[in-house]
Amino acid sequence: MSLPAPPLARARMEAEIAADSRFDVVVIGGGITGAGTFRDLAMQGLRVLLVERGDFASGASGALTRVAHGGFRYLERGEIELVRESVEERDRLIANAPHAVRPIRVVLPLRSRFGGLFAAPLRFLRLLPGHGLPGIVPMAIGARLYDALAGRSPVLPRSGVAAGKSARRRFPYLDRKFAGAVWTYEGRIHAPERVAIELVEDGVASGGGSAALNYCRLVAAEGTTLHLENQLSGQSFSVTARAVVNAAGAHADKVAALFGIREKMTGGIAGIHLILDAPELAARLGDDLFFFEDNHDDPAKRRLCVVYRLADDRVLLGTTEWACDDPDTATATEADERYLLDALAAALPDVALSRDTVVAHLIGVRPVVRSKEANLANRSRSHAIFRHEANKLPVVTIVGGKWTTFRRMAEDTTDTVLQILGRRRSVSTRDLAIGGGKPRFSGGDGRQQLAEALQAAGIEPVLAARLIETYGSRAATVAEWILAHGADPISDDGRLTRGEVAFFRDAELAVSADDIIRRRTDQYLRAPDREALARRLELCRESTG
């Protein structure tokens, strides 16, 4: 069957760039912030080029805890505006990308009833440093404030608190050393990398000749001319820009240096998550996210860790936190694994997990705004925008922030660029669906209609349901590729089909098996043997050309 030309067709975009190399804006960095900024700028009618030296979302944007949250713990530090912004953006994400971000209950165990009752207000006013988690009563007050900042959230239930036997009945995994627990609701990001890909596609599809290339790096800048290298072909080419957005994350200072900018703007914080094969723990946690303190002897130095079930028997445990000036050197060590496993054992004493249960790592370096604050946990997660003039070329750098607030970060960056270019905003992204998050398909009736349409086209019911769960309203497009290239399974669990592999490569710019396993699907979290899957993907490439 004949398939429609996809927005992200590499050959077409490269031909368009060769025919006309003039762009209004070039965005450097294809993480979640760069992707969001690219979409926002393109939707304002500008011709925009996005370049990413690796694959989209291959850095910190794909190595997060995978939770869109409001930052409940930041309340104690008095960062009200950051929390307000975060809860608003969290709710927008759940509304605008319901296929990728869905509610999850977050449970925070507490050791006392009244601990910190008098100290907590002083910490809130920043008159007293942190000293471990407060007790049930002050945390319950904090939870009410958290709900109030979210307003009447249309997508999430309210928080709650329970003590003693009531808490253990509600949460059977809660150890007796805890006096109770407070819980809130956040958004679980089922597919952070796919959100980035869909943002990029939205930007290209908006028209105006915008383009996006992964595996394309900035080599040098001369005035308004940028010299780029296509790392797939090895060929170099040049484009011109009226403005540049530096959204390179933890690499932002290195990119800025190519423009002659010497200001140090970012300080990286590395975080390591472990993926565990832990059937018993997964079953006990159910659908809850358990947010707990580590077991440091000094309560003032305790950090919060997180554990929850990812899929089937796989569990995510994180995270470490250490300063990292060079993101390319970040690795997971035996000490990282031991720290996290020991912290989990202290919180859930009857769960004994060895290093043998670790099947993979997620390694990312968060680009926080450079600070002299020695305590990494106390560094602000707010974002900042820097403006420079490099040989008459405006360069706007965005650093800091959280994955949750990427839309707001992109909006602020876009507004800065529009001001520089003398343009006015014409489209708001506040309530704009992302990729497959079209409102028509987010409800039960819409999903049912889409499922019936897929089945009528020849897609089996189980596969139709999974396509809608994964791709939302874009399921119909993916189904066309499956019907054209085959529904035979490539992965062990049958969740990856031959047609999807063709779709990722021809319509979503996937190049390698790793691109597909880690950033187009959830197979990095699920596959029992990723190397064997990679070999099958290569064979699939050979058989389909």
For this entry, give a set of tags.
545 residues, D-Amino Acid Oxidase, Chain A, domain 2, single chain, 36% helix, 18 helices, alpha+beta, FAD/NAD(P)-binding domain, 3 domains, ten-stranded mixed sheet, eight-stranded mixed sheet
Helix content: 25-40%
Radius of gyration: 23 Å
Task: Kindly report the name of the CATH homologous superfamily of the largest domain.
Answer: D-Amino Acid Oxidase, subunit A, domain 2
Structural class from helices and strands? alpha+beta
Strand composition percent: 15-25%
**How is the CATH topology of the largest domain named?**
D-Amino Acid Oxidase, Chain A, domain 2
The low-confidence runs, each spanning 5 or more residues with pLDDT under 50, are: 121-129
What does this structure look like?
With 545 residues, the protein is an alpha+beta fold. 36% of the residues lie in helices and 23% in strands. The chain has 18 helices and 18 strands. The strands form 2 sheets. Strands 3, 4, 5, 6, 11, 12, 13, 14, 15 and 16 form a 10-stranded mixed sheet that branches. Strands 1, 2, 7, 8, 9, 10, 17 and 18 form an 8-stranded mixed sheet that branches. The radius of gyration is 23 Å and the shape is globular.
Q: What is the element layout, followed by pairings?
A:
Elements: H1 10-19, E1 22-28, H2 32-43, E2 48-52, E3 67-68, H3 80-96, E4 101-110, H4 119-124, H5 136-150, E5 160-163, H6 164-170, E6 180-189, H7 192-205, E7 211-214, E8 216-222, E9 225-230, E10 236-246, H8 252-257, E11 266-277, H9 279-285, E12 288-293, E13 304-311, E14 314-318, E15 322-323, H10 334-347, E16 358-369, E17 383-390, E18 393-400, H11 406-421, H12 444-457, H13 461-471, H14 475-485, H15 498-507, H16 513-520, H17 523-526, H18 530-544
Helix pairs in contact: 2-7, 2-11, 12-13, 12-14, 13-14, 14-15
